[in-house]
Amino acid sequence: TEGAGRDFIRDIVAGDLGAGKIAEVVTRFPPEPNGYLHIGHAKSICLNFGIAQEFGGRCHLRFDDTNPAKEEQEYIDAIERDVRWLGFEWGKHLYFASDYFDRLYGWAVDLIKAGKAYVDDQTQEEMRANRGTLTEPGRNSPFRDRPVEENLDLFARMKAGEFPNGARVLRAKIDMAAGNINLRDPVLYRIIHAHHPRTGDTWKIYPSYDFAHGQSDAIEGITHSVCTLEFEDHRPLYDWFIQNLSVPSTPHQYEFARLNITYTLLSKRILNGLVKGGHVSGWDDPRMPTIAGLRRRGVPPEAIRDFIKRVGVAKANSTVDLGMFDFSIREVLNRAAPRRMAVLRPLKVVIENYPEGEGEEIEAVNHPDDETQGSRKLKFTRELYIERDDFMEVPEKKFFRMAPGREVRLRYAYFVTCKEVVKDAAGNVTELRCTYDPASKGGNSPDGRKVKATIHWVSAEHSVPAELRLYNTLFSDPDPSADPESFAKGINPQSLEVLSDARVEPALAGAKGGDAIQFERQGYFVIDRDSTPGKLVFNRTIGLRDTYAK
Ligand code: ATP
Ligand code: MG
Ligand code: MG
Question: Which domains does the chain have, with CATH numbers?
Answer without folding.
Answer: 8-256 (3.40.50.620), 268-338+466-542 (2.40.240.10), 342-455 (2.40.240.10)
